[in-house]
Design goal:
The structure is a homodimer of 429-residue chains.
Chain A (H helix, E strand, L loop, with lengths): L20 H6 L3 H8 L7 E5 L12 E2 L9 E2 L3 E4 L13 E8 L14 E5 L11 E4 L3 E5 L2 E4 L9 E2 L10 E3 L7 H9 L4 E5 L3 E7 L3 E2 L10 E2 L1 H12 L3 E8 L3 H14 L2 E5 L6 H11 L3 E6 L3 E2 L5 E5 L2 E6 L3 H20 L10 E5 L3 E2 L5 E11 L2 E6 L8 H5 L2 E5 L5 E2 L4 E6 L2
Parallel strand pairs in A: 5-6, 13-16, 13-17, 14-15, 17-21, 19-24, 22-25
Antiparallel strand pairs in A: 1-12, 2-11, 3-10, 4-6, 4-7, 5-9, 8-9, 18-20, 20-21, 22-28, 23-27, 24-25, 24-26, 26-28
Helix pairs in contact in A: 2-7, 4-7, 5-6
Amino acid sequence: MSDRRVVCAPRRKGWRSCPMAHEFLRVKSREQVLKEMEGFSPVGEEEVGLLEARDRVLSRPLVSPEDLPPFPRATMDGFAVRAQDTFGATQGLPSLLRVAGEVRMGEIPEIFLRPGEAVRISTGGMLPEGANAVVMVEYTQGLDEGTVEVYRPVAPNENVVRVGEDVASGEEILPAGWSLRPQDMGLLAGLGLGSLWVHRRPLVAIVSTGDEVVPVCETPGLGQIRDLNGVALAALVEREGGIPLRMGIVPDQKERLEEACREAIERSDCLLLSGGGAVGARDYALEVLGSLQGAEILAHGLAVRPGKPTLLARVGSRPVVGLPGHPVSALVIFHILVRPLLDALCGRRYPRRPPPLRARLARNIVSAQGREDYVRVSLHEEGGELWARPVLGSSGLIRTLVQADGLIRIDPRFEGLYRGDWVEVEPFP
Amino acid sequence: MSDRRVVCAPRRKGWRSCPMAHEFLRVKSREQVLKEMEGFSPVGEEEVGLLEARDRVLSRPLVSPEDLPPFPRATMDGFAVRAQDTFGATQGLPSLLRVAGEVRMGEIPEIFLRPGEAVRISTGGMLPEGANAVVMVEYTQGLDEGTVEVYRPVAPNENVVRVGEDVASGEEILPAGWSLRPQDMGLLAGLGLGSLWVHRRPLVAIVSTGDEVVPVCETPGLGQIRDLNGVALAALVEREGGIPLRMGIVPDQKERLEEACREAIERSDCLLLSGGGAVGARDYALEVLGSLQGAEILAHGLAVRPGKPTLLARVGSRPVVGLPGHPVSALVIFHILVRPLLDALCGRRYPRRPPPLRARLARNIVSAQGREDYVRVSLHEEGGELWARPVLGSSGLIRTLVQADGLIRIDPRFEGLYRGDWVEVEPFP
């Protein structure tokens, strides 16, 4: 058991336990927590077929097994020529070349091009031996079936892709940690890479807690709420490349929570706890996680609003994030902390995220100093400028999540921002 | 057969057929083609489970079946009170309230709150009758088990979400045409909407053509190329919400192409033809499409570079896009035309795309007047500014696709742009 384990003082019944020294010590800034996340390693690798590789992350650098193209290719429709035969050609004094035949698509040309000859070729066709350039059909005029006039000179290699010019054999095409886009898959297809080594998608267990939480399919009684966090978190995990493993709902009982956590950690690469609202439930979580074999509490509380009651632990090599129960806070914490954690677990070194948008603030915002504030905003255009309008309403209102297009971050040093200020909006993907 | 059908003049063997009047007439601008795309309707609808609904597009507006919350909920830990009992409370002169009990999570409180009383409550707990506000625990101090001091007044409804305040029963929550994000799914879960009506994902047939094209798993001979467009297009279709249906490779033979197109159109909602490089192959496509039952050629050629030899047709209600054979051109045309077409077929009225980024051009670009130019750029930061560096190399180089982060569009009226000019970059998703 780690020597950094936190032991909780007994809680006075019905009262919030007094903040203890360790709670203050373990409240961390976002930067500190992000630093902790760097300590988590990517899960293992697996081989997948190219057609299933979209958005998968390369676990090894990709090295080209061959030259692309493997033969000199025309990039235009026209005539394959020896460039020197066209030097000096003009509209008034064209080069006159003998048409020695045609390159058929997909075949090796049988012709050897001699001086003064031209061969018809289509885009993608293989240059015959002897030829070193292609004249575009637009700059030619057929005199008869056997002769063509060329009106413009071409340089050697003009309108031609040379052997290995696109990709050379043995060259690194893409680095480890790269997530594959459709165009990357196209290149790999061109090289005949039918399967690839990628990182496994991390299994992310999701445990919802709270006496008041019921499954989505049930009709909640008064005082109860459906497990909406479980659904939203599963969708978020999937979007970020993980495989969600929904472990159901656990009531606010220490033993039940302990059992659920132990099982979840055994079966997955990462555990997300979606916290119940009850006073003291967070203390259970802290106590339970601290008591597991190989556990270490990395952060207990975050200097971020919304999302202060966030918990980060490590159980062996596996990260555990205790998310706040408020759906809005849970989403903000997912956005700013769980996404980078999943990047680490997925081995994603080049996350492809929309960059922040510059917008002007549509109304004043007040913020407390000493903590980062994340404010939900909706975006609209007005007078040719992008405006960010803070979405009003407490973080208890789920609707505000749906109305928001992204988040702005207010620096802990600021007391607020004024209408018209320029802000950076992190758009929701 | 449509009266707008185009009949091709016989092609002289081995020569590019002369551009005919209809070819010039059918060359359209991007705006004109986008206008044509609006004529295509969304495919039908289907019911899906909420957990499978991410990125699916609502086919009907979503109306809330119930009030959320269905009971007045605390949004803070503290004490449920009658607001008027706290009016005038200060640090020096706190309100003294009798603690009448505790609200248990997930249960209906049995207490009726009388004047002068307070009840312990956690975030998410149901307010007892008689209470109309919650005092945060931070502004209270327990005197003994039965009495609490309140240091700050609360207004009625403070720290409370009223019945239906989040979502009222019968209210439209999300419009038809909306694509569902994780947070939207959370809200729907909260309302118990376990299944939804969404648009079917359109089946998009992909036919690769060209005598020189071989399947990805085969080793191409000299002069041949693997079907990389087929792979890239399938991945792009999937990313944009369609279901790709790869129909294989068809050689440059009119009868084979006709058979493949007929079958593809029967089996799918949309057909993408990935053109072979051979001179004349595009004429086959035009002829074949024009001859199909209920066909109408909407555009034959696009005033866009790269991507001029793009073909747009309608066969009955189904769109057909003939994409250029060059992978780079095919990707550009997918980006600027097929994406909006898939938006129409998916019924997506609120496409969620990263907005264009403002960047400065890292080098001069020359462009021909009279057509739109799309230039691949890579992005980097320098001196606190975002710079867009044009990716050099012919559109025959597949590698340039992988190096690019997005596209800039050069207006047909411009002859080029200078280094340092501000440009808008459309990032690849």
